[in-house]
Amino acid sequence: LTGSYDIERGHPMERCEVAGTGGRFVLEDMWHELTLYPAGNLEKTVYTDPAFGGFGDFIDTFRDRIGTFLKQVSDGVPPDELHGSAEEGLAAQKVIAAAIESLDNETVVYVK
Predict the structure, then answer these.
(1) What residues contact 106, with CB distance under 8 A and at least 6 apart?
(2) What residue segments make up the domains of the chain, in order of their start?
(3) How many angstroms separate the CA atoms of 104 and 77, rounded?
(4) pLDDT at residue 68 greater than cutoff 80
(5) How far apart are alpha carbons 73 and 79 in whole angstroms?
C-alpha cells in the first residue's frame, strides 16, 4: 500500500495490492484502474475508469455505489443478487483494516 496526501492529484501515487489464496488485485491511482489476477488463471482482467465520463473525484465512487444500491432495491432485485452485498462490504473492510494495521505495525497482517 502506497499513498501520499501531500502530492498533487493527477500523479498516480496511490497503489494497493492485495494477495490471497484466490488470487490478487492491484488498485492503481485510487479508483482509476483495477487489475484482477485470479489464482490458477493466466488471464488478468483490467477495469479502467475513463478520463472523460468516468469518476471525476473519489467521492463519486460513493455516489455511484449508493446510487446503484438504491436503484437495485427500487427495481426489486432480490437481496442475494444485489451488487456489493453486506458480506462483500465486510470482507473489503477487513482488508482495509488489515492494510492500516500493516502500515502502523510495519508487518504482514493476515485476513481470515
Answers:
(1) none
(2) 1-54, 57-112
(3) 40
(4) yes
(5) 8
- The three-class DSSP label of residue 63 is helix
In angstroms, what CA-CA distances link 93 with 47, 71, 89? 21, 23, 6
Per-position DSSP letters for 35-81, written without gaps between them:
EEEETT-S--EEEE--TTTS-SSHHHHHHHHHHHHHHHHHTT--GGG
| Phi, psi dihedrals of residue 28, rounded to the nearest 5° | -110, 140
Half-sphere exposure of 104 (CA within 13 A, CB side): 7
The model's pLDDT over 22-44, given as tens digits with 9 standing for 90+, comes to: 999 998 876 788 999 999 999 99
Is the pTM here over 0.70, yes or no?
Answer: no
* Angle in degrees, CA 54, 58, 63, rounded to 5: 75
> Look-up: residue for cell 490478487?
24
Q: Which residue type is seen at 39?
A: A
